[in-house]
Amino acid sequence: MVTPARRDLRRAQSIGKAREIGVEQQWNRRAFMMAAAGAAAFAGVMPAEGANGLRLTPGGGSITQVSGLRVGHYTDTRRPTGCTVIIAEAGATGGVDVRGAAPGTRETDLLNPMNMVEKVHAIVLSGGSAFGLDAATGVMRYLEEKKIGFDVGVAHVPIVPAAILFDLGVGDASIRPDAAAGYQACKSATTAAPQEGNVGAGAGATVGKLYGAKRAMKGGIGSASLTVAGATVGAIVAVNAVGDVLDPATGRILAGARTPDGKHLLDTRAAILAGDLPNAMRPGTATTIGVVATDATLTKAQAQKIAGMAHDGLARTINPIHTMMDGDTIFALGTGASGKPGNVMLLGVMAAEAMAIAVQRAILAARAVEGFPAAVDFIA
Amino acid sequence: MVTPARRDLRRAQSIGKAREIGVEQQWNRRAFMMAAAGAAAFAGVMPAEGANGLRLTPGGGSITQVSGLRVGHYTDTRRPTGCTVIIAEAGATGGVDVRGAAPGTRETDLLNPMNMVEKVHAIVLSGGSAFGLDAATGVMRYLEEKKIGFDVGVAHVPIVPAAILFDLGVGDASIRPDAAAGYQACKSATTAAPQEGNVGAGAGATVGKLYGAKRAMKGGIGSASLTVAGATVGAIVAVNAVGDVLDPATGRILAGARTPDGKHLLDTRAAILAGDLPNAMRPGTATTIGVVATDATLTKAQAQKIAGMAHDGLARTINPIHTMMDGDTIFALGTGASGKPGNVMLLGVMAAEAMAIAVQRAILAARAVEGFPAAVDFIA
Fold first, then answer.
1. Using the beta-carbon criterion (under 8 Å), do B312 and A309 form an inter-chain contact?
2. Which of A30, A71, A232, B120 can bridge A227 by disulfide, Cβ–Cβ 3.0-4.6 Å?
3. Interchain CB contact of B330 with A (< 8 Å)
């Protein structure tokens, strides 16, 4: 085990509890007070320093702070696995950047700024590897029932881009999110701050997988948001990486591959660079997937650029990332609810930051499942 | 000024001196000894910890450790500005990833894996904004005189991709690297470790530009290499970013935008997120450009993937990066001199790491010019 930092653990646990009982407003009030005091107008990047250098990212809202979005999880506790849907009923301009080498996606080509469709109605993030793409079928059914979609005269065709992650190594690989799972995720979608950790697309997520499942740790799903100069950017991400997850403010690893005895963090980057490579590296067995969204009005090209900059948030918190074993994919949405055009310079910086916070929140909210310890257990 | 860390400053200066008088071998010997002792077989990522938390990256070779490459600078001291050429006389498989929104490039389309030409003969990095693309003309002339190029029967056409950075804000903007500058860079190219700091494409480079030139600091050019499992990856980069440069192991900012009085580091990321945005942000006034290279045999698609992963090295050391004001571009080369096929998983991790070290070396080797203090002065 890493040296104890029990104060931080308690803090992490109380954060988890605060989220569960719906007192997210505490953090919003704190953010407001900091802004009023002339400090940074974002809670999530203000560190809570504790013993042993552990820096937790205590709050900062969630993607549902972006007006025009609802988020729902479906969690299949049998494995666990699950899916998460981000619904923009009024439509949102969409973009995507696929930076991992082993992606599993649906409806990403239409997001190319050259292509015709301008608005998407939902994004699906799912476990279950490529099988999990079926979740989008259920999301389309839900939206069609509400007559939400691209109007082609004879029907409304819901535009539902999707990306999956590989979690088949956790539990029974024959259980995967399907169309019914996607439909259920839609039914549970609200504008409240989404649950984090072992839920939805993060239910079966794990990290630090380069040296095999026996040395990996639990990943999860996390969310964050920032509001700067009247624009809000939110992020949600299911962290399921071949690499380790770290706090970029200190370089400290929060979760990742463990030493062969399972008792210590290995430091995957240092191990690779010291020539400690696994005999077999199985491609496509990881993947981190997420969404950044803003209430600003975006063009498709702007959305694509912001999705690209959000990947820098992954690069800063996950190492290695974007490998041959990861299919890392980030979508960007502009709901336009603020009625203001986007400043892409600002929104891109905010997207990278929100994504970096959401990654850390995913890991700090994760809880152990059979064979996969979580950061909060391991660091204590 | 930031709190003193004079021991680190002296260390930085002695590193600079060692490089100048050509005793780079010292570091190689140190790297070897560490490897022999069972430590990581890479010098550059072993930190030299010092007072005030400053961590220098003391060595780790340079891009010319990659067999099959020669590197030359041309520095025009009048402004200063300049260009840098990386020559692969026998040809190298090439790839590129353009991640900044304001690039200036030449011959990048042929690097698309779908397109026909397989080998490039040199890469040019140049100051002078888009005018600096002319440096490639001189490099082509030099190579044609040596009958190096793609054989089209009636001539050898040298394949010379190039990228430029914006440094016209330093000195007389009418002075730019031209064809003669590119030719001179070729004439000076050797297999020795290239000079770092205010030379070549890094001569006029500056960083921390979001709040204008008066609050920026000096950037430069840096290089690094790693050897792991028999494969060598080197990087060279001219750091000329709108963002700040930091040490990802500690989160500490090494150089960047200063407070309005010019006396302290501002922390551009925190300032942006606190809503401190300049009234006018001029697009295209920054850009970090570089090359990663390996002695492994690569396909063009593999080279492109490795160039992409190398951008994670920029994301970890420069914040913000890949903005609307940057044209950040990284080329990748596979010389094939080792005769061994590349493991892209490994090479990509090495490329990100080598790039991250090279960025820090660029900043630590930079020296002040009129109006632009350097990290080594500022931190002391």
1. no
2. A232
3. no
